[in-house]
Design a protein that fits this description.
Layout: E1 34-37, H1 43-51, E2 55-58, H2 65-89, H3 102-109, H4 114-118
Helix pairs in contact: 2-3
GO molecular function: glutaminyl-tRNA synthase (glutamine-hydrolyzing) activity
InterPro entries: Amidase
Length: about 120
């Protein structure tokens, strides 16, 4: 017998929430999954998944720690601007104590196009 968990109701204060039930996670056919793993992965886990029929594929990351940090900074700036947009447009950022950092980064993030962000 599989129990379907109750799902939370739509939050009336959150326009993005929906009344959508959770799907039963145990109904996935893992033999149809392809899972990538890095060379420093726990090989015991890789072998167990392979023995269960999961297609395990080794791969290498094509970026360095420095480029990953750049991607992270770029993403965080845009996400932060999305959150603080109304605040900044109201010129409330002039009251923020870290004038040498966050307001400048928020203004810089405004120049990033949606295409650049998605890519």
């Amino acid at each position: 017998m599989v129990l379907i968990p109750k799902y939370p109701k739509k939050d009336p204060d959150d326009v993005s929430s929906r009344d959508i039930p959770f799907s039963v996670p145990f109904s996935v056919d893992i033999t149809k999954l392809t899972v990538g793993y890095l060379e420093d992965a726990e090989m015991e886990v890789v072998h167990v998944l392979q023995s269960k029929g999961v297609n395990m594929v080794p791969f290498n990351l094509s970026y360095t720690v420095d480029s990953a940090q750049g991607i992270l900074n770029f993403t965080m700036d845009v996400e932060m601007l999305a959150h603080f947009d109304k605040w900044q447009r109201s010129n409330l950022d002039d009251e923020y104590e870290a004038q040498d950092q966050w307001p400048i980064e928020l203004r810089r993030a405004r120049a990033i196009s949606a295409v650049d962000y998605v890519q």
